[in-house]
Amino acid sequence: MTLEVGVLGYRFIGTAHANAMARLPMFFPDAPEIERSVLVGRDEDALTEAADRLGFASISTDWGEVVDDVDVFYNLGPNHVHREPSVAALEAGTPVFCEKPLAPTLEGANVMTEAAHAAGDDVPAGCAFNYRFVPAIRYAKRLLEDGDLGDPRHVRGRYLQDWLVDPEVPWSWRTDADLAGSGALGDLGAHTVDLLRFLVGSDDLAGEIERVSGHLKTFVDERPVEGEAETRPVTVDDAYSAQLEFENGAMGTIEASRFATGHKNDHTIEIHGSDGSLRFSLERLNELEVLREGDRGYETILVTDEDDPYVDHWWPPGHVLGWEHTFVHENYEFLSAVANGQEFEPNFDDGLAAQQVLDAIERSDDRGAWVSP
Amino acid sequence: MTLEVGVLGYRFIGTAHANAMARLPMFFPDAPEIERSVLVGRDEDALTEAADRLGFASISTDWGEVVDDVDVFYNLGPNHVHREPSVAALEAGTPVFCEKPLAPTLEGANVMTEAAHAAGDDVPAGCAFNYRFVPAIRYAKRLLEDGDLGDPRHVRGRYLQDWLVDPEVPWSWRTDADLAGSGALGDLGAHTVDLLRFLVGSDDLAGEIERVSGHLKTFVDERPVEGEAETRPVTVDDAYSAQLEFENGAMGTIEASRFATGHKNDHTIEIHGSDGSLRFSLERLNELEVLREGDRGYETILVTDEDDPYVDHWWPPGHVLGWEHTFVHENYEFLSAVANGQEFEPNFDDGLAAQQVLDAIERSDDRGAWVSP
Amino acid sequence: MTLEVGVLGYRFIGTAHANAMARLPMFFPDAPEIERSVLVGRDEDALTEAADRLGFASISTDWGEVVDDVDVFYNLGPNHVHREPSVAALEAGTPVFCEKPLAPTLEGANVMTEAAHAAGDDVPAGCAFNYRFVPAIRYAKRLLEDGDLGDPRHVRGRYLQDWLVDPEVPWSWRTDADLAGSGALGDLGAHTVDLLRFLVGSDDLAGEIERVSGHLKTFVDERPVEGEAETRPVTVDDAYSAQLEFENGAMGTIEASRFATGHKNDHTIEIHGSDGSLRFSLERLNELEVLREGDRGYETILVTDEDDPYVDHWWPPGHVLGWEHTFVHENYEFLSAVANGQEFEPNFDDGLAAQQVLDAIERSDDRGAWVSP
Amino acid sequence: MTLEVGVLGYRFIGTAHANAMARLPMFFPDAPEIERSVLVGRDEDALTEAADRLGFASISTDWGEVVDDVDVFYNLGPNHVHREPSVAALEAGTPVFCEKPLAPTLEGANVMTEAAHAAGDDVPAGCAFNYRFVPAIRYAKRLLEDGDLGDPRHVRGRYLQDWLVDPEVPWSWRTDADLAGSGALGDLGAHTVDLLRFLVGSDDLAGEIERVSGHLKTFVDERPVEGEAETRPVTVDDAYSAQLEFENGAMGTIEASRFATGHKNDHTIEIHGSDGSLRFSLERLNELEVLREGDRGYETILVTDEDDPYVDHWWPPGHVLGWEHTFVHENYEFLSAVANGQEFEPNFDDGLAAQQVLDAIERSDDRGAWVSP
């Protein structure tokens, strides 16, 4: 059986998923057979061009029809478009793969998660936190779960970009609260929160995030509208930071910025446990720095050996992978779950859990006090 | 005229200052002439041995007598011993060089600072924040003051050690609230707060720290007493973190830990400005990473050129300095100020300002809310 | 018109090229249309499986038939199979893309290059030195050609692997002189020599390599045959080093090893010019370290900006590429050249030039004296 | 008994040794008591100033008198002054500590070594290769001798400076063959050759260097004379490289340059053994990168723990040492050997052995062929 996939969204992230699907047969021959069936959007000309380039069989400007027809629905649109089509698809019993953050608001995330629960366990509802699928991150999780680092004490996450440093960079949906929900917090912080939950969120390690103290900041209050004389207000954060306390006593600091001059896509994770430490940086995503009990310094591991996660599907040791491979891995796992009617993680519960933390960070910033997610 | 110097304290930090004084004639020939006159402590045998090794002419177990007799008084004892002898010296018109943090409590720091003001401008009262005297840090300050990095947006400071990870490490004055005031916060955080104030604290840059949100944590609640069967409670923090907001709008995160497995003395500073960024790490103290306008990445600068701060006193380019050189530089500046009856910075005002931030971090942690220093 | 491509070889490198061809339509929409038409090999079962996985329309065990039938012929077999099919294809007027090193012997490379010349300029004969197509390497070439680094003085290249450290690793065609020509020298050194020629080989820079002093070494003289009780002699080098002198006076050292414990695929290039320096490492292939006139240290550049070579075809800044992307770039350039009847570089002349240097290194090692290529 | 030390030379290296001697009592209390007795040179005014600054009791312009009078003689003058005073001192039974390279020519080094042998074992004749006394280098030697890295296969050494890149840098004794012997080869290469001999020169490891292939280059043929209108020819090498073969089969490449743009004092050593690898860089001299059997990457070790070589004399873990500390360590060892009438290494035999390799590199460059030291 071939799974017919409908995809809403065809820009940056849409291309990343289309590419991922296209590469499965050559590198993951046991992945289910799929057809890139229909590409969904509003602008017919742009859609036609994109469908041709990305290898889709047809286009549609009406997601309402699509969610019923296809075997799987990918929701890769802007944040404010995540809710309705995803819920409709789930109500139709169609598995959904939705980009992060799950929704601009906690309320939206709740509604979506309820829809996922209502659809049942055999209708996977995945939230596309692709960084869980970096081989080095999977390897890190293995170390943590095996207890190699002991009890987590300190956790740090940082996602630095600089594309808004120039005040002349134009307004976009990403700088608008109604369309995006939040700024760096939702766009980047969602990734950080999910990675920390993935790595140390189990009860045996640090557990869930129990309380947070948040700080949001908008450095430039209004931005020009592209091609127009007017400006529009920036209604989201340019940067956020937060302090965390985990259930089992670990403490953390996380932050993200679109104003970190010189940093393009610099997502770093650091963990100190009672027996060891680790460091990861997305800009060197093939590497993991690990310090185990008895070590005197960090070992810089190139996570490209045959028995490293997913690596046997690709190239010999030392032949590095890129950012896009994370999408191939997550598409493989998600589509396999769909084909087998099995659960997939990260799912909407994970998307909601991240959203709850982001929401708590915003509430904490409002109140000037610690709050619980 | 030869300045007679009396020094209270002769262990780790006492040695660092004695060594610094001993090296001035060879490398800073224009430094005032001094005599390591009297070494002050409680244990006569240990004192005698230390005075011999560190080159002091005499010993005393009574600081009360010393502070009057000498031309300069160094207070290098544990935190709870900072207040009384320093105040007595200042009341006697004797310049004081006191280790950080200025005092275990804000009240103590206030009293000491008042004594410094009462003594007058020609009686320098220095607070020995030695990391201001790292050549790379001075070079960083120059860049910031010249506006090369623009307006600071993000500031980060982190001081990581791991000597308490093992729960069997014994109790000491450093783990006791009455003797030390606080733990990682006062011991390490004082350095971080002072460096940030030094680097971006001017009105043209980020200004002073306006409000903080703090988080303190003690991972191990009691520790064995060395050589005894009993344990004693740990009454200070093992680690702290804080979020900062500066007067001019910059945001910051700082933290320190004695539980950062694998890190021995890892003090890092990072700043992102509107035009550039910089990074510094104490474990590679000869280096500064700088990204200026138009650069595409950080430039790793070895700050050992002839025209770099203090470097012309030492060796040719590329011949690296060590941790102890910071003490030589600060002793040179402090003793020169004493000899010339001039002001020295960092002074007790700076020590107090740091203490106010540390105190605010503790208060914030207590209340679970942002507070102002 | 669709170009029908025939490919000999379907293992590691065959997959890299098949993947590259498969990705062109989505990321290089102006690439010529191609069909992966026929996959050539000896073992029908393995061929059938590979053709299915790699997306080929048919298979053949007779390259003699294929080279005539197809529009383009890729020769990706072991070194000793490079010569005959490539020459046959060129004689049939079929463009050829041949893996490196061009041939196991200089004589073979000469014959192949003559065949390429005889076929004429509109029949591209490419030698697949894929590392010329790393964006950071192209960017480095731009800097060198713009004169940003001045006159090259020192050139270094090093290609380190460790897969033969264990003496129990079995004998293979790669350790046999008749089948492979040479060992680390041909397999890895060919890449290094080509990159140096690409980067500094123009007359304006260092020019061609004028003389060499070589050193070859075999650490383990015989190896077990897989699945058999016997051993066979290792008749190629496990490692080589060479000193170089360039036409314009620059000096160089290059080396490669299969015995560099801990290094998997570590190809590094370093150049010091009269005005600046650069460093590149394949294991961090998205980065280039550059020191320009007036700089005090190397700037670590992430070569993923929109205007960096080939990057606009892929992802936004900071989203790193992997090893395999170099194949997509070279396939794009080669197939475009074929479609347009234009020249492609690196061509067989480049393959021969590299082979001449490798041959000189071997001759030098034999004689214990410097020789000219 | 106090050892009276006479020192010839008071500039850069003279200061390094004077400082080292001055620091012994505080940090190496078991070092023999010494007096910086007499400073020797030609210019009385400069001598007087230097003796005052460096703490010498007297001056002399006649080394002939001094070598008899003192208990120990330090020869820290330019290379061409090494021979005569050192031989005279040894003939007088006075222990000698001579800077490297031992002599400008092999003949000079031979004569000096014969004088050392004639003086007998209880008259130490040390050659001041200070980099043997870097804690990280001692630690590396320990690993190698314990067999942690197995049999050395590859050895690399590189000493990069850039102070001659500008052709306007004036002529000096360092660019003249009669006064210096050679250029980068003798000045920098001597250090590299000695470190390799120290680390892997024992019979159990790689053994001595058996044959070499050398390459010398002078990029700028004449230089202006400071303060004069004329230029003088540069008669030494600006850079050299060499390939090495060791007795036990290891291969090596070494090089040095005064034309490595951007590098100030960058001495690096790399070793790959059958079981592990290591890397060291002088500009980060507190660090050693080590890969042991079973490791997947290099561990970056900060060699500042209490049980690391010499570290217990200094500061707590993580408080880094500088370049000058190597002189304190070697002075401690040398003066202790003098006081105890024991042998000291590196001695004149080591100086001669290094000189033999340097001489072989020059002869090899002349002949264009491999030669044996």
TrEMBL record, chains A, B, C, D:
Gene3D superfamilies named among the record's database cross-references: Dihydrodipicolinate Reductase, domain 2 (3.30.360.10), NAD(P)-binding Rossmann-like Domain (3.40.50.720)
SUPFAM superfamilies, per database record: Glyceraldehyde-3-phosphate dehydrogenase-like, C-terminal domain, NAD(P)-binding Rossmann-fold domains
Record-annotated GFO/IDH/MocA-like oxidoreductase domain positions: 137-279
UniProt-recorded Gene Ontology molecular function terms: nucleotide binding; oxidoreductase activity
Domain Gfo/Idh/MocA-like oxidoreductase N-terminal per the UniProt entry, residue ranges: 4-121
Cross-referenced Pfam families: GFO_IDH_MocA, GFO_IDH_MocA_C3
UniProt keyword list: Oxidoreductase
Signal peptide coordinates: none
InterPro entries the record matches: Gfo/Idh/MocA-like_OxRdtase_N (IPR000683), Gfo/Idh/MocA_oxidrdct_glycsds (IPR050463), GFO_IDH_MocA-like_dom (IPR055170), NAD(P)-bd_dom_sf (IPR036291)
Protein name listed in UniProt: Oxidoreductase domain protein
Organism, scientific name: Natrinema gari JCM 14663
